[in-house]
Amino acid sequence: MALRAVPGPLPVRDRDAVRGIAERAAATDGVAPLDEAALLAIADEAPSPGTLTHLLMVGAADEPAGLVGYAYVDRGGAVPTAQLVVDPGSRRRGLGRALLEAAADAARPDGTLEVWAHGDLPAARALAAAAGFTAVDELWRMSLDLRGRSADEPTWPEGLVVRPYRPGHDEEAWLAVNARAFADHPEQGRWTAHDLAAREREPWFDPAGFLLAGRADGSIAGFVWTKVHPAGDLADEPVGEVYVLGVDPSAQGAGLGRALTAAGLAHLVGRGLGTAVLWVAGDNAPAIRTYARAGFARAALDVRYARRAAGDATPPDGATMGA
């Protein structure tokens, strides 16, 4: 086997090969091995910010498989993170362990690394244990049946006006309130204009489902951003998602989170969708209570594993958003 490190962007041929492995793994495992951040990094044609590394594992020259494994390493946060996938046809040969160790080497000289395992699969738990990683965090996928649900608009706190997001106008203000709302969650809170623009270019992006709750002075008090997954992505039918929901710290405690959740669900009901999902950090008890009151229940689980250098007490970053 040969391992190639690419700081990005990936050549088109490599992008297609990685997507092929991810699709085959999802079909085999019943869960996608790479989240949205990784898939956007794979597709990104812009110069790398210097914090991302793509690791490509290639089979021997006499093997027809070509690319047999992939890992995505992001060193942009306080602790480097990674995700990896091995082609189903090349498993049980130690490739996952080799990729994991290569990701740790690419992360930091001392090997400190956090790895997301999507779906909490037994094979991922076994690999993590064998490599000395321990579970430090959970990301819940919660689900809600929308059939028969009313699309009525919620009651908003006094003084707020709700309107759709305006591309080309609201980016700077939204990034500022997003950073404040998720100041304790670096994965979401450190979004840049590049991150936002990449999602605005995605085929699923619809500003009509991206609602901003604004004050009279034009500032944003909170927002709910929805997304629609096509049939075959999460289920046999299209599925709606409460993609990101945030409330500015200055507007918390007034019931805005509940109103935004209801508004997002009303939009998805209006789209004729039968199911809504969202992802939330397993230790975010206030958010989980809000979503549970709206009828959501846990449906799936992702796990973050960590291996740290001796004496490194860096706390894990919180996960805040969906794929």
Overview of the structural elements:
With 323 residues, the chain is of the alpha+beta class. The protein has two domains: 2-132, Aminopeptidase; 142-300, Aminopeptidase, CATH 3.40.630.30. The protein contains nine helices and twelve strands. The chain has helices at 12-29, 36-43, 95-107, 122-130, 171-181, 186-189, 193-200, 256-270, 285-293; strands spanning 2-6, 52-58, 67-74, 81-86, 113-117, 134-145, 161-164, 210-214, 220-229, 239-247, 275-281, 297-307. The chain has a twelve-stranded mixed sheet, sandwiched between helices. The longest helix is centred in the N-terminal third of the chain and has 18 residues, at 12-29. It is globular, with a radius of gyration of 20 Å. The protein starts with a strand and ends in a 16-residue tail after the last strand.
Q: Sheet with the most strands?
A: 12 strands, mixed
Principal-axis shape: globular
Structural class designation: alpha+beta
Proportion of beta-strand residues = 25-35%
CATH class of the largest domain equals Alpha Beta
Cα-based radius of gyration, to the nearest Å: 20 Å
Tell me the CATH topology of the largest domain.
Answer: Aminopeptidase
- In sequence order, what are the helices and strands, one letter per element? EHHEEEHEHEEHHHEEEHEHE
What count of helical segments does DSSP give?
A: 9
Quote the distance from N terminus to C terminus. 31 Å
CATH architecture of the largest domain: 3-Layer(aba) Sandwich
In the sheet with the most strands, the strands line up as: 1-2-3-4-5-12-6-11-10-9-8-7
State the domain count: 2
- Mean pLDDT across residues: 90
Q: Runs with pLDDT <50, length 5+?
A: 313-323
